[in-house]
């Protein structure tokens, strides 16, 4: 018996439904798994009987056993000129410290800043930025030059959001050292590199943080990035002078895609591990699509405001990627605006067992 026209139509509808479901799954897989993602690194816990002596040298077993980060790139990304010198970082930790070892290739080592909490980046320097709870607020910045002059500070929020740097912030248990291959401030004797060792007290790094704890647990993840400021110098009568008219180079681990380190949502991700050395796999946060949606709406609101002079709660007025506007990777963002000058964005994941994300106009990110 031949199927009726109704039966044939029903079969066709079922096939179309199956096709659409498969197509949506494919689009989700391609789009949502390919969202922009920063650099990542796994730091391994030291064994109970291990220690790292902070002497500026990176020749200890505890450093030799682990791999380095990718080499630093221009702060704006890999499409910009490759840095003239190699830079990389390694990390370890114990229940008290985050240990950072940095290698900086350099032919002309100079340093003039000698006072703690002076503006160290007037010299060539190495910098660390940490945001353990991913909030973009109350993050810490640390700078060091080749003669071990340091500057540690805390920022309540990024400068562009009205934040300020508090240099009275101190890490009393901080330990630092540098090692220089050759002399400092002698242009007649070429150098090869300088290196840095830092033991950053974990308790100091989570100051004012709402979620991050010290010490972290296995698989906990913090935001972190590293920067290197590199000036062009020349030999003038046996001493170094900066080349007039040339700005400093800024080289980083995880690209900022702007000449600005104070965009914490673009920093890399550090995962802590207590597992067997070099056995862990990096775990991508299942709520990353929610996080990215928050950032996209935040940026779109700021752009809209710069043109229109007010914020909008109408998502159709914002320039957003389709995966955000159509809710392809997380639910469609909900935007609330108060008096046209303050906004709050909420994004829920598809998996409601995961926390809901929020961001407000001063860049603060939190979860509920």
How would you characterize the overall build of this protein?
With 368 residues, the chain is α+β, with helices and mostly antiparallel strands. 17% of the residues lie in helices and 29% in strands. It has five helices and 19 strands. Strands 1, 2, 3, 4, 5, 6, 7, 8, 9, 10, 11, 14 and 15 form a 13-stranded mixed sheet that branches. Strand 12 (233-236) and strand 13 (239-242) form a beta hairpin. Residues 19-30 have low confidence and may be disordered.
Question: How is this fold's topology laid out?
Answer:
Elements: H1 5-32, E1 40-45, H2 61-64, E2 73-74, E3 87-93, E4 97-105, E5 125-131, E6 139-144, E7 150-155, E8 165-166, E9 175-180, E10 193-201, H3 202-205, E11 221-230, E12 233-236, E13 239-242, E14 249-252, E15 268-273, H4 288-308, H5 322-325, E16 334-338, E17 342-347, E18 357-360, E19 365-367
Parallel strand pairs: 1-3, 1-15
Antiparallel strand pairs: 2-14, 3-4, 4-10, 5-6, 5-11, 6-7, 7-8, 9-10, 11-14, 11-15, 12-13, 16-17, 17-18, 18-19
């Amino acid at each position: 018996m031949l199927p009726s026209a109704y039966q044939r139509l029903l079969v066709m509808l079922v096939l179309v439904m199956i096709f659409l479901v498969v197509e949506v799954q494919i689009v989700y897989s391609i789009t949502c798994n390919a969202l922009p993602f920063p650099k990542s690194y796994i730091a391994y816990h030291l064994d109970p009987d291990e220690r790292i002596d902070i002497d500026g040298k990176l020749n200890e077993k505890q450093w030799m056993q682990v791999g380095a980060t990718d080499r630093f790139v221009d702060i704006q990304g890999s499409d910009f000129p490759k840095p003239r010198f190699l830079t990389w970082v390694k990390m370890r930790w114990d229940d008290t410290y985050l240990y950072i070892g940095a290698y900086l290739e350099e032919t002309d080592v100079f340093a003039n800043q000698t006072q703690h909490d002076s503006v160290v980046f007037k010299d060539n320097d190495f910098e660390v930025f940490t945001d353990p709870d991913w909030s973009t607020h109350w993050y810490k910045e640390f700078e060091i030059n080749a003669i071990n002059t340091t500057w540690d500070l805390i920022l309540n929020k990024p400068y562009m959001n009205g934040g300020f740097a508090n240099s009275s912030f101190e890490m009393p248990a901080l330990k630092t050292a540098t090692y220089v291959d050759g002399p400092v401030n002698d242009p007649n004797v070429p150098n090869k590199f300088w290196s840095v060792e830092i033991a950053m007290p974990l308790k100091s790094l989570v100051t004012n943080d709402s979620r991050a704890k010290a010490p972290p647990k296995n698989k906990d993840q913090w935001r972190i990035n590293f920067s290197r400021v590199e000036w062009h110098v020349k030999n003038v009568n046996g001493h170094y002078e900066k080349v007039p008219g040339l700005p400093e180079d800024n080289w980083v681990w995880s690209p900022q895609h702007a000449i600005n380190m104070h965009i914490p949502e673009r920093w890399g991700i550090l995962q802590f591990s207590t597992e067997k050395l070099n056995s862990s796999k990096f775990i991508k946060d299942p709520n990353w699509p929610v996080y990215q949606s928050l950032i996209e709406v935040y940026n779109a609101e700021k752009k809209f405001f710069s043109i229109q002079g007010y914020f909008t709660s109408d998502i159709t007025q914002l320039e957003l990627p389709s995966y955000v506007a159509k809710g392809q990777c997380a639910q469609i963002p909900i935007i609330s605006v108060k008096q046209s000058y303050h906004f709050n964005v909420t994004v829920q994941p598809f998996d409601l067992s995961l926390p809901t994300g929020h961001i407000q106009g001063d860049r603060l990110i939190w979860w509920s």
